Amino acid sequence: MKNKVTVFGSFVVDLMARTPHLPTAGETVRGSIFKQGAGGKGFNQGIAAHKAGADVAMITKIGTDTMADVALNAMNEVGLSSQYLFRSEVAATGTALIMVDERTGQNEIVIVPGACNTITDEDIAKVEDVIQDSEYLLLQLEVNQDANEKVAALAKKGGARVIVNTAPYQQVDDSFLNGCYLVTPNEVEAEQLTGVPVTDLESADRAAEVFFRKGVQNVLITLGSRGVYVNSEGRSEIIPAFRVSAIDTTGAGDAFNGGLLTALSEGKNIWEAARFANALAALSVQKMGTTPSMPLRSEIDAFLEAHT
Asked: What residues act catalytically?
């Protein structure tokens, strides 16, 4: 029976500093807070989905260094199985250097993928059954793309619905997107992948048409504080974001994708799922960090009830 959702993606250790402003080239800025924690788009999304109530198989790759313990500790803390973690004897665990403007919540990030950029055919063979037995598979573009392509092909062959969060941007072959159930770029990534600047509903419709021609079944484009554009089965609209005071926007996109995955796995339609995901994003930006900011299901339900 297909009920498990699989997140295949990156793990990196987040090294985050909050500063009065983001530095310009050559500038040194004295920070106010430093934190180290579990991160990476794949891992963040897996944690978000798990805390929101999904039955998640989290697949990623770490090294054998002390940074790898950050992943294991984070999974143990929330009760997420580490059964599908690969280990590299050569590459170090990935890292991300994050600077957050404490006035605006905006951020700048440098990713060094490390071990999660070295996922091999042998690694994938060990989880082939997990991938093919999943109802949904969520991918990002933060691991080596050849591994993404092989995993997506396995999932499609097994009948899983493949969701691609096209972040961080890199050019991908149309064959990778062909047959995907859903893509979830932000407006910048949507423009990079389609050549269409996304500024309103009409331009988002044009970008969506490019994705449809590439073989994607449904299109969702996140628009930051404006909300999310959804195009499915001939209907398109922008679902407004919830208005909250942001402290740290670093994990908002990952919270959104994890929430979307959870809602879809529970049988919600794409419109209901987008609203549920908006709630996760709104809750996440009100806390510092990435995985620590992912809300519990009780928090999500309470938030949605308060904003009906």
From this structure: 254
